[in-house]
Design goal:
Number of helices: 18
CATH architecture of the largest domain: 3-Layer(aba) Sandwich
Order of helices and strands: HHHHHHEHEHEHEHEHEHEHEHEHHEHHEE
Number of strands: 12
Number of domains: 3
Radius of gyration: 21 Å
Strand order of the largest sheet: 1-2-6-5-4-3-7-8-9
Structural class: alpha/beta
CATH topology of the largest domain: Rossmann fold
Strand content: 5-15%
CATH class of the largest domain: Alpha Beta
Distance between the termini: 33 Å
């Protein structure tokens, strides 16, 4: 795993290769360590790789020693995950653009990362009305009291209210930053930033000493959506970063809830647009909690007995499938086999009647 995480870091340093393209490289080659030495012809088989980018890859990997890069990187960035690490948040592995490197500070909850503790995102405008702030507080407290982790972006306004109210109620919260995890933005959230780390987590895909840049925040919003089972947009104007988060949530198959208000309130018109597009309307905390409670958990602690007749590699893949539908990428991650091998083994398990394939490249144990 240490070797493979070095290659996730190394690949992330190649200009022109973002999270989406890097996931394709991983899926095509099985591991990024194998991909690092793969041929020009193989790279050309991957969607999105043209001649210019292939040449960039060939030139860059001659200049980088992945293990040396990892050792140097750890000096300023001691705590981070890559998709090669077993503690990497499971939900993020399932989106099309998982961060190749995810930095963190604070208290890690491994059960939460495995999907056993539900996370709900709360986002909204930086300039909320009293109505928006009041509901952000009420909902955050209700979620905290019922065991949900509240995810937000530590921005001014609704985000800050959600984090603070959750912690005041004794709950756990996660802040996803558009800066390095060592940079506080906005500056007046210094105390909030310190409080979150005491019992929660600060996350970012940007390395230490990355300062605010407006282009980073839309990308940050996909992580907020990717981490969460549901997204609550409590107040948002029609041109809002919160609506970017909602679009990502829709792309990732997350549930979207929004708080209604009058069309006369400019800071809430984006929420009315979401209602028009099919978002669930928040009317009371009790109804919201009931709807959130109906979302099936991604994982459970149910123990599945492996059939005794399976060969070792088939058993590894079988054991990598949770009791609930499991993505192909997660099975590859858990089994530590190549994507090609896993694909072939899954087919064998289907023919044996042990595994069923579902839409979206998900698999579950046949009942």
């Amino acid at each position: 795993m240490t070797e493979e995480r070095a290659y996730w870091l190394a690949w992330s340093k190649i200009a022109g290769i973002g999270p989406v393209l890097l996931k394709r490289v991983y899926q095509h080659c099985g591991t990024l360590s194998e991909a690092w030495s793969t041929s020009k012809t193989t790279l050309g088989e991957i969607e999105g790789f043209g001649t210019k980018l292939i040449n960039t890859v060939l030139e860059t990997r001659q200049k980088i020693n992945p293990q040396e890069l990892l050792e140097e990187h750890l000096q300023k960035n001691p705590t981070f995950w890559t998709p090669a690490d077993p503690d990497y948040p499971r939900l993020l592995l399932e989106i099309p653009s998982p961060p190749p490197v995810l930095y963190y500070r604070g208290k890690v909850d491994l059960k939460e990362n495995q999907g056993l503790t539900p996370r709900v995102a709360i986002v909204g405008t930086r300039h909320p009305t009293e109505h928006g702030k009041r509901w952000a507080k009420r909902i955050s407290i209700a979620l905290a009291n019922h065991g949900f982790t509240v995810v937000s972006g530590m921005a001014a306004g609704i985000d800050g209210e959600a984090h603070q109210s959750c912690m005041n109620a004794g709950g756990r919260t996660i802040a996803v930053l558009g800066t390095g995890v060592d940079v506080v933005y906005p500056h007046h959230h210094r105390q909030l930033y310190e409080q979150i780390q005491q019992n929660g987590l600060v996350l970012s895909e940007y390395p230490a000493q990355t300062f605010p840049d407006k282009k980073n925040f839309p990308a940050r919003n996909r992580i907020i959506a990717g981490l969460s089972r549901a997204i609550l947009v409590l107040e948002a104007p029609e041109q809002s970063g919160s609506l970017i988060t909602a679009r990502y949530a829709n792309e990732f198959g997350r549930d979207i809830y929004t708080l209604p208000n009058s069309p006369d309130v400019a800071s809430a018109r984006g929420c009315l647009r979401l209602v028009h597009q099919g978002a669930e309307v928040i009317i009371t905390e009790e109804e919201l909690l009931e709807m959130l409670g109906a979302i099936p958990q991604l994982a459970s602690e149910t123990v599945l007995v492996t059939p005794p007749f399976l060969e070792p590699e088939l058993a590894r893949v079988y054991q990598a499938i949770a009791s609930d539908p499991t993505s192909f990428d997660m099975i590859v991650q858990q089994s530590q086999l190549s994507a090609g091998d896993v694909s072939g083994i899954l087919l064998q398990l289907e023919l044996l009647g042990l595994v069923t394939q579902l839409p979206g490249m998900r698999y579950q144990i046949s009942r």
